[in-house]
Amino acid sequence: MHRALFLTFAIAEIHPFQDGNGRTARIMMNAELVAEGECRILIPTVFRNNYLMALRALSQNRLVKPLVQTLDFAQRYTGAIDFSALDRARAEFERTNAFLDSNEADANGIRLSLPDAAG
Fold this sequence. Notes:
Layout: H1 2-14, H2 21-35, H3 48-61, H4 65-80, H5 86-95, H6 102-107, H7 115-118
């Protein structure tokens, strides 16, 4: 997890590419997690602002804890999704607010919820 977190932050911070830095950072993070037998991490649309704020906290204020907590929650969320069938996974994404626009959700106080807590 430490290497995965570092890779995510390093690519996002260094910004080596004209486009696709965030996607590349998340691919590298997940490659590291999979290589170590860990659960992948998805960042649902509704959780995007949380993820970006946590990256900024580390980049601008050297605060590591928000990114660790954010990625820990995202990993628990990803691990709780039932991917055995597309329809089942999609229903869980919808039930947990995953597809909502992060800015609209923030304005309305809507958060990402863990699948087992969503019902």
